[in-house]
Design brief:
single chain, globular
């Protein structure tokens, strides 16, 4: 990335929408707010576009927004609709009159973590997915199938298991300190189902309970520790599935809010090591991946990046 370039990068996820304005390696300003369901939904491109612009308006005043030279957006739901992803790229390009690149949040995370090189990345946030790009740029994916059919071991999964454990304890099952933690949400465990359905985003609400499960597990709660151990086992299998026939010893970079917990990351690394998988330090995150997609063409992941070509130089 040239130092004179001013790049607008965004991570428009299900839990949060983050935007940054960058000049070379310098961060000029950042803003964030709530997320959205995904670009693949009805009116998804418009929802993503409006949310991104609204978040840009939250940037600190005085930034050179008018001097933007390219836009890179990592967006939830891209893998489910190439057509709508392309539509969003066109909308962004026309709005800012610069080249725009739209890619999935998981692809962006892999790009940022390995700086365009082939390899595997495990992202554990509200959802969970392992992405591997091989030398030919072919994507090998495991999980990331959403809260109904997948995302096992994710923050949502951990939080959901924790809330279920509270209800099981209420029914006469194993006692857990999570019952006390849930008391900050509702007066009685019997109110948890209603509390959850009343939330605008129940999956994010469950994910927000995950840190309390982690705290309880670290403090020695047996029920919580069992949940975390099972999450690590599931995520290890997810990485193994994505790694497939990867030559040599499998290696993976870890990203996402859940692995920000030192306690959880240590347990996950131990689980991965027991499966012969080496953990490598990520070189960046999804925003770095979006910036890379915005400023460089010919990446091995190119077939998974949706670009508006109108303003691209020859």
């Amino acid at each position: 990335m040239e130092a004179t370039e001013v790049v607008l990068v965004a991570d428009v996820g299900k839990s949060r929408c983050r935007v940054e304005l960058r000049s070379g390696t310098e961060l000029l300003g950042a803003a964030d707010q709530h997320g959205f369901p995904g670009v693949h939904m009805d009116d998804g491109p418009t929802l993503a576009f409006e949310l991104l612009l609204e978040t840009v308006s939250l940037l600190p005043p005085g930034l050179p927004v008018g001097a933007i030279t390219s836009v890179g957006a990592a967006v939830a739901g891209v893998e489910a609709s190439a057509e709508k992803s392309q539509e969003l790229a066109t909308m962004l390009s026309q709005r800012f009159s610069v080249p725009a690149a739209v890619l999935s949040d998981a692809t962006a995370a892999q790009l940022g973590a390995l700086q365009g090189a082939p390899g595997t990345t495990l992202i554990v946030g509200t959802g969970a997915v392992a992405f591997r790009f091989d030398e030919a740029g072919v994507l090998h994916r495991a999980d990331g199938w959403g809260p109904y059919l997948g995302d096992r071991g994710s923050g949502r999964w951990i939080g959901q298991q924790g809330l279920q454990a509270v209800l099981e304890a209420h029914d006469g099952g194993p006692a857990t300190s999570l019952s006390t933690a849930a008391g900050a949400l509702v007066e009685s465990p019997e109110m948890l189902p209603g509390w959850l359905t009343a939330n605008e985003n129940p999956y994010r609400a469950m994910a927000r309970f995950a840190p309390l499960v982690l705290q309880a597990a670290e403090a020695g709660d047996a029920v919580a520790h069992h949940i975390i151990a099972e999450a690590c086992r599931i995520l290890t299998r997810t990485v193994k599935l994505a790694s497939g026939d990867d030559a040599g010893s499998p290696r993976v970079a870890l990203l996402g809010g859940v692995v920000g917990s030192d306690f959880f990351a240590a347990l996950l690394r131990k689980s991965l090591a027991s499966a012969g998988i080496e953990v490598v330090a990520p070189l960046g995150d999804g925003l770095d991946g979006a910036a890379l997609a915005a400023t460089r063409r010919g990446l091995i992941q190119e077939r998974y990046i949706h670009r508006d070509g109108t303003n691209w130089p020859d």
